[in-house]
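// run 5 | inverse folding | seed 20
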């Protein structure tokens, strides 16, 4: 985990921490309780696979996310982290563990169409190279922008925007804002 991610969690997600001089001090029990509470809230209002999931805007007001982002990655912990980033931007999230599941989800009439796809490059079944090829074969899906997430250092991956791992939390935020804003 990168230091930038921790600072971002402290500032925007209210991770319990106390600054002492140049350093941050955290109590393990408080961080554990924060993680459990955050996961519990996520489980209660999870919009990952259910477009009917809602968020409360205020007393008696219910709001559905207008935009959804499809997160395609075989790493569950990265999907969860990106879910936090996506939901902090006011978007719902849909998940797929590989390209085949993503295509099935995109073609489903029961799921909302995402405004953006965050796609891991290396996955089992259908990877991030084969998925865009399949996506281009289906005209309604071809218009959905894709951002590749990879640890590879290649400079160009088929003209698709790329975010490098390990992710600096500001980069997916900027990419999401750029695509939906």
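// decoded
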């Amino acid at each position: 985990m990168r230091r930038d991610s921790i600072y971002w969690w402290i500032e925007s997600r209210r991770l319990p921490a106390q600054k002492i001089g140049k350093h941050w001090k955290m109590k393990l029990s408080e961080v554990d309780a924060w993680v459990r509470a955050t996961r519990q809230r996520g489980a209660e209002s999870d919009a990952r696979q259910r477009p009917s999931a809602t968020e409360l805007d205020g007393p008696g007001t219910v709001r559905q996310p207008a935009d959804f982002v499809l997160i395609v990655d075989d790493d569950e912990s990265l999907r969860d982290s990106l879910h936090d980033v996506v939901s902090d931007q006011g978007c719902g999230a849909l998940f797929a563990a590989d390209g085949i599941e993503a295509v099935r989800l995109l073609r489903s009439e029961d799921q909302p169409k995402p405004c953006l796809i965050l796609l891991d490059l290396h996955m089992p079944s259908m990877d991030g190279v084969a998925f865009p090829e399949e996506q281009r074969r289906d005209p309604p899906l071809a218009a959905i922008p894709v951002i590749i997430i990879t640890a590879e250092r290649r400079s160009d991956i088929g003209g698709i925007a790329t975010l490098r791992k390990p992710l600096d939390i500001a980069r997916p935020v900027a990419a999401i804002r750029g695509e939906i804003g």
